[in-house]
């Protein structure tokens, strides 16, 4: 934290800025997404904190403004904005759709309170006098200076209030949830407890000055590392659940894509490919899944006239002997009648005969194929079930003897 070149500030600040920029395209597509907007604000404000709190930045702000210690209200302003944005994000994050109006009301109150504190910080600095530039120990150096003292205390009080509120909200919510969300909330709680330790060290150093003692080392260099670790833990805590959910969704889409492959391979002979969404190796996985499901449904539509109710009934009886549940037996029966229909369709297509044995009027609808989960289970049964394998072999034998 005492690195004079500011690298320990600028590197995480740049990463936060990059993360915020990556969130802008989704926000552009969904401008009314309040949670996403709050995430973007938090990332950019957090990047701003690291940008202005580095010693080189403090020096630059003071030089450019021509006012000694002009960086102080700037740093306090951005830090106060970060506390407010954390609270707004937590309010949005922990509120369901039914609480949207109440969340919006509390978010507005939090924003107004943050703006009021920021205005007071800058007003107090304008009223006070701080002629000697202090880059790292302004808090204790001006601890007894009128208005500057009040500015410092106001910032610390606002920072402490935000930390206490966030700790309470996150700890209460963590007791109600599990998984990555709970882990993220626990990290945020630990981060804000470190924030409270930072505030306690600052207040102790100030109190020592007010009573004629010198405990400046508590304010610098002991306190800043608490703030640095706190910022890291809080950032990870916010990102972890969001990133975990995205990775889980991404992995789930790929798993679904691979699970649907057996059904796609079986039905591709009958697929007319009425649409073609997938366009190469760079095709997003959600488009790939849409394409493969479209092909499967297209193939099912082609072979539907060959679905034989009698084959399904016989397969259902066989499946019930080994299937753990009636639902699983029904899926196996659907897969078996579909495998039989594919063989029959292939034979008729090879013969150039477009008129199948007529089962369409009373033919079974594949109930398993009416949902995403059902389609995956149907695909799995096509590749794994002994009943389906036996039915397919019998259909091949039947078609070869005709």
Give a description of the structure.
The protein is mainly α and 402 residues long. It has 2 domains: 7-247; 262-401, no CATH class. It is built from 15 helices and no strands. It is elongated and about 105 Å long. It starts with 6 loop residues before the first helix and ends with a helix. The model has no long low-confidence stretch (mean pLDDT 87).
The helix/strand order is HHHHHHHHHHHHHHH
Which range does the strand content fall in?
A: under 5%
**Number of helices in the DSSP assignment:** 15
Radius of gyration: 32 Å
Overall domain count: 2
Q: Which spans of ≥5 residues are poorly predicted at pLDDT below 50?
A: none
Would you tell me the overall average pLDDT? 87
Fraction of residues in helix: over 70%
How far apart are the first and last residues' alpha carbons, in Å?
84 Å
Total beta strands: 0
Shape label? elongated
Topology (elements, then pairings):
Elements: H1 7-29, H2 34-53, H3 55-65, H4 71-93, H5 100-127, H6 138-141, H7 148-174, H8 179-210, H9 216-259, H10 261-267, H11 285-303, H12 309-322, H13 326-351, H14 372-384, H15 386-401
Helix pairs in contact: 1-2, 2-4, 4-5, 4-7, 5-7, 7-8, 8-9, 9-11, 10-11, 10-14, 12-13, 13-14, 13-15
């Amino acid at each position: 934290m005492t690195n004079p070149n500011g690298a320990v500030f600028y590197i995480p600040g740049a990463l936060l800025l990059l993360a915020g920029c990556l969130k802008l395209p989704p926000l552009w597509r969904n401008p009314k997404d309040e949670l996403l907007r709050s995430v973007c604000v938090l990332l950019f404000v957090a990047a701003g904190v690291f940008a202005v709190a580095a010693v080189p930045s403090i020096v630059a702000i003071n030089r450019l403004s021509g006012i000694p210690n002009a960086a102080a209200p700037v740093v306090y302003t951005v830090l106060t904005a970060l506390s407010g944005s954390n609270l707004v994000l937590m309010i949005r994050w922990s509120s369901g759709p039914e609480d949207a109006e109440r969340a919006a009301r509390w978010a507005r109150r939090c924003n107004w309170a943050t703006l009021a504190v920021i205005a007071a910080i800058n007003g107090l600095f304008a009223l006070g006098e701080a002629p000697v530039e202090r880059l790292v120990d302004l808090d204790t150096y001006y601890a007894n200076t009128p208005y500057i003292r009040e500015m410092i205390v106001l910032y610390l009080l606002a920072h402490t209030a935000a930390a206490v509120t966030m700790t309470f909200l996150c700890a209460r919510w963590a007791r109600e949830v599990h998984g990555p969300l709970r882990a993220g909330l626990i990290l945020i709680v630990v981060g804000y407890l470190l924030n409270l330790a930072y505030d306690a060290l600052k207040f102790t150093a100030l109190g020592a000055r007010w009573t004629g003692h010198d405990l400046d080392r508590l304010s610098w260099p002991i306190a800043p590392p608490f703030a640095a670790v706190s910022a890291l833990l809080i950032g990870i805590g916010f990102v972890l659940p969001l990133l975990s959910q995205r990775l889980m969704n991404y992995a789930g889409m790929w798993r679904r894509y691979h699970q649907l492959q057996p059904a796609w391979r079986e039905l591709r002979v009958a697929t007319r490919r009425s649409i073609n969404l997938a366009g190469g190796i760079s095709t997003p996985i959600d488009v790939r899944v849409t394409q493969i499901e479209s092909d499967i449904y297209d193939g099912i539509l082609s072979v539907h006239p060959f679905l034989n109710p009698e084959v399904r009934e016989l397969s259902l009886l066989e499946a019930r002997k080994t299937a753990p549940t009636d639902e699983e037996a029904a899926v196996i029966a659907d897969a078996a009648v579909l495998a039989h229909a594919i063989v029959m369709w292939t034979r008729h297509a090879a013969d150039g005969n477009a008129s199948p044995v007529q089962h369409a009027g009373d033919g079974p609808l594949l109930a398993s194929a009416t949902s995403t989960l059902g389609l995956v289970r149907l695909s799995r049964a096509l590749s794994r079930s002994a009943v389906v394998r036996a039915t397919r072999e019998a259909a091949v034998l039947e078609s070869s003897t005709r």
